[in-house]
Design a protein that fits this description.
This protein is α+β, with helices and mostly antiparallel strands. The protein folds into two domains: about 150 residues, 2-Layer Sandwich (Alpha-Beta Plaits); about 190 residues, no CATH class. It is built from eight helices and 16 strands. Helix 1 packs across helix 2. The chain is globular.
Length: about 350
């Protein structure tokens, strides 16, 4: 092998989601990998040489070649509007018309880097494993899709944030992530999760801070006509901005619009700070610091088109503190005793026990 090249053999742990394609190489793409790796190395490696264009965009001088043998599975029909097939737990992009997407899994994948710059080659060689540990690819990557790693045991110490984990399986990892994430952010409804009802952990956290969370604030204002609720805050959108929600019980739609005079600062999208990674029958998850961008922001809340309620996100919030609260929660008190014999309750107890042991 040329002294200017580096090669890595990768193992794909979860499917990557692609627009429908018949290409045999519809897998991890250099056009996605290189910009992400550039940013990672620029953040991690002091003094790494880079190029900068007229717009101030920085990039590194190397080329990437990816060779993979893929197995492509068409997922058209998994999320249809009008049939009885079970929807995919974490992917909803095929609900409407337009281009469908597919899952793609590679049985073998090799990545080759080429650079004349020794410092760049050294930076890649030392940091590529860490980059893969911290990064997923493709659509729905924060929910665990597009997970790759070197062909070796996973090293969670490479992740830049505090990491938690619990066990799962190849058949259940998507369902388990959806179930666990719903419990943190929105709560568990009997209709969606087999006979158990539980308030969201973020509701309990807000209550512990004497905050009225957004769901109750919206209901009080528009439905109960109670205008005197104190310390109302938009809490669920700290997990990722949901600009439009369907409130099925009320046959209504709730829309949110960032109330910002400076159009350049308007928040239209906000990706969840929480990343999940499924590797070798274990779900790892952590939160980055991006939630800071959402603090003390005001949103106009529209309930079926009515827009007389403004809510702000809290002025301070960290996921580290939230997770500490969450995993010290007494589930036997948080969830009504009538559900304690339910298998989903037992599942939550098991997940929380494993998370505490993983800390």
């Amino acid at each position: 092998m040329s002294k200017f090249k580096l090669e890595f053999q990768l193992k794909q742990h979860t499917p990557i989601i692609h627009f429908q394609s018949e290409q045999s190489g519809a897998t991890l793409r250099a056009t996605e990998l290189k910009p992400k790796l550039d940013r990672f190395l620029l953040e991690q490696v002091e003094g790494i040489p880079f190029k900068e264009n007229a717009n101030g965009h920085k990039s590194l001088d190397y080329k990437v070649k990816i060779e993979a043998k893929t197995e492509i599975s068409d997922i058209e029909g998994i999320n249809p509007k009008n049939n009885k097939q079970t929807p995919n737990p974490l992917f909803f992009g095929n609900m409407g018309d337009g281009d469908k997407k597919r899952f793609s899994m590679a049985s073998t994948i090799k990545i080759e880097f080429f650079s004349f710059d020794a410092k760049i080659r050294e930076a890649i060689e030392k940091n590529f494993e860490s980059f893969l540990a911290n990064t997923n690819f493709g659509t729905r990557q924060s929910k665990g899709f597009g997970g790759f790693y070197l062909e070796k045991p996973f090293n969670k110490s490479l992740i830049k944030h505090k990491v938690y984990s619990f066990s799962s399986s190849k058949k259940k990892w998507q369902e388990d992530i959806k179930f666990f994430y719903a419990f943190l952010r929105a709560g568990i409804n009997t209709a969606n999760f087999g006979g158990i009802y539980a308030k969201a952990v973020i509701f309990a956290y807000a209550k512990s801070k004497n905050i009225t969370w957004d769901q109750k604030a919206i209901k009080n204002f528009y439905l109960d006509k109670n205008k005197n609720i104190e310390n109302e805050k938009l809490m669920r959108d700290l997990f990722g901005l949901s600009s439009s929600q369907s409130w099925m019980s009320y046959n209504a739609t709730v829309d949110k619009e960032h109330n910002e005079q400076d159009q350049k600062k308007t928040i239209d999208r906000f990706k969840s700070p929480i990343t999940f990674k499924f590797i070798d029958n274990k779900i790892y998850f952590w939160a980055d610091k991006s939630v800071e961008k959402m603090l003390n922001k005001e949103f106009i809340i529209k309930f079926d088109g009515k827009n007389k309620l403004n809510l702000k996100t809290p002025t301070s919030f960290t996921f580290d503190e939230f997770f500490e609260f969450a995993f010290s929660l007494d589930l036997s008190k948080h969830i009504d005793s009538e559900y304690h014999d339910n298998e989903q309750y037992a599942k939550l107890v098991k997940i929380f026990k494993e998370i505490k042991e993983s800390k």
